[in-house]
UniProtKB/TrEMBL annotation, chains A, B:
Taxonomic superkingdom: Bacteria
MF terms (GO), sorted A to Z: 2,3-diketo-5-methylthiopentyl-1-phosphate enolase activity; magnesium ion binding; ribulose-bisphosphate carboxylase activity
Organism: Cohnella zeiphila
Residue intervals of the Ribulose bisphosphate carboxylase large subunit C-terminal domain: 130-299, 331-410
Protein name (record): 2,3-diketo-5-methylthiopentyl-1-phosphate enolase
UniProt keyword list: Isomerase, Magnesium, Metal-binding
Amino acid sequence: MSNASYAKPGYTLATYRLYDDKADFRKKAEGIAVGLTVGSWTDLPEVTRQKMEKHLGLVVDVRPHEPEGAAPGERYADITIAYPELNFSRDLPALLVTVFGKLSMDGRIKLLDLQPSAEFLQAFSGPRFGIAGVRETLGVDKRPLLMSIFKSVIGYDLDGLREQFLQQALGGVDLIKDDEILFENPLTPLERRVEVCVDAAREAEKTTGQKLIYFTNLTGPTSKLRENARRAIDAGANGFLFNVLSYGYDAMAELAADSGINVPIAAHPALAGAFYPSPYHGIAAPLLLGKLTRIAGADLSLFPSPYGSVVMPKEENLAVQAALIDPSLPLRAPFPVPSAGIHPGLVPLILRDFGHDVVVNAGGGVHGHPLGAAAGGRAFRQAIDAVLAGRDLAEAAKEHEELRIAVERWGVRNA
Amino acid sequence: MSNASYAKPGYTLATYRLYDDKADFRKKAEGIAVGLTVGSWTDLPEVTRQKMEKHLGLVVDVRPHEPEGAAPGERYADITIAYPELNFSRDLPALLVTVFGKLSMDGRIKLLDLQPSAEFLQAFSGPRFGIAGVRETLGVDKRPLLMSIFKSVIGYDLDGLREQFLQQALGGVDLIKDDEILFENPLTPLERRVEVCVDAAREAEKTTGQKLIYFTNLTGPTSKLRENARRAIDAGANGFLFNVLSYGYDAMAELAADSGINVPIAAHPALAGAFYPSPYHGIAAPLLLGKLTRIAGADLSLFPSPYGSVVMPKEENLAVQAALIDPSLPLRAPFPVPSAGIHPGLVPLILRDFGHDVVVNAGGGVHGHPLGAAAGGRAFRQAIDAVLAGRDLAEAAKEHEELRIAVERWGVRNA
């Protein structure tokens, strides 16, 4: 799925897993390659064929999986089709409708991967910041970043939100994100929310000496997203959270390409569970939350961690990360943000699995600290520093009260 | 799923099917109701509870399905949660992210239905035309409508497209739609395509005496959709096809609400197979292609018929139709368009299953007629007239050459 040589010039490769107990998989693949491009081929006159050949899809690979004595439902093939990019415009709705529009409804078939050509990808600016740009904004060179999430947002007024923000910021987190279910509302309207949170960030900076990005949830009617983003930026916003799957990838790609929206975007995976978990249907997580999210310009991509309550298998998690940072893709790499169920005792595991270009993202693991959210943030920072120094977490906990209490509460899962 | 009394004032009801071999379903439901709204409840002080109560989600119903000796994977419950509409803005991204954002990733859970309140729905204009409006535009009172699809579009120039259009129009079809994979391209650019097809429609009208709507595929960057729509309308467009799931429902809702885009919209189900077929994940077809498509303003909704190669079970098909025409929803009703694998011999079955407020939609069943596309259209019209007159199709075929040949080719499946 990675290290594709981007790719066959003028063609996008699409790889599917197709389950069928009886099908001739090669014939099926040929049917797709013709059916989703020129419509028919064998019955075309030679002169028409010559005209149509450049529009014709090609079967690149068919790998059947047909174990001896396969039980019903076990037989499948991974097939790869090359689609001429001449056939669709340079945008993600056109690409997705072409390769998985009608086909998504044609039996048990899951879209595993897409490899657009380098030329196709030139139409996308991709992440404006990516890992390096976010690090530069924060002035943090190599350390894994720490993000925290508000505990509760709905029903809170500006004072309540500010106080939550301040406590998180005082703990030394690098990034704070809105809850994805915080929409425009009378208690904490967009611009006022940005103002009070940015003000709290400034206040905390006096103590922590640290910069901070606040990812404000960018919401509203599709046609007002840019305008809302600019209003928020005028009010001081320095980052946006975006529920990309509820608006479509193209809406995010347009935000990311807009030079007036010069702040990082964190893509939230809300609704992703409608796409990726079935082995038989949908779009695989490494494509959905990895490659497509990157092409569409996210600077951070959140996805369910393999550690918590809302889980994705570790192998799939690492494939999402691989797609986000794959060096063969000619676009900046977004930060992977494995989320849900994270506490300081998991930091050794997270850094072992994801390396240092990762965002450690916690909600309950910050707010649930017995000494409060600021202590919760400090416990995470202490854990990160300990792991970076090659120290045992339980040992380091002896020297740091916040970490010690966190470890007492949640335990340690060493790498 | 239908006949909801729209609904609990101030609340949207969401119904899920949740598979779990061990869970206490009521406890799980309570966790969702709290977790996706106020975040926590039992540990809140009384004074905070009073403030938060109006934001708290409520468990409305829990219906466990726990048959004696259930095999692993068989145990489930249908649960209904009421979400205060105070918590989210009046748009579909906010609604979907609230009720199925994070939750979609939380194990085996499928979103079955949503019942927003009448007040919430007031924010949506819904279909501008609906069944009645499309009928009025065409001047066709009661008869089921006939739609045809281009045979091949990719690689065709304007002359080739016009000729295909003309042949279809001469057959007496009411509606012709672009292929959903026809995007902006140098051979048949939007405005030129509209001009030649509308011109062909006028030419055919001289023979058929019939009005016709041409659903041009509306594509391009999200922020240019309205502009492209207006350009097409200025060039004579009188309908749009829209790949709604690739742009998000909100993009369509904004088009439908735009008084400058005063033509019907046909929603194409491209990508829908990524959402509805799994019993364990995603969004049920009657909600996805029925109710949400209607709320988002489609005048026609296409979905895979139960008759053809790309199939959806008939029960699910009829549930999609029921959601589209449910009289308790305070919005116009879109035409159901069961698509794929349709030939004239299926008309008795389609009209039995869907009644007369249906669009009979055919591609191969028109173009594959041995006497050509115009004869294919006539065969369909003859079949529709015969069924409306209560006649046996095989009998009627004796009097109509086109129908006779179609029946010879594809057979008859009587109701």
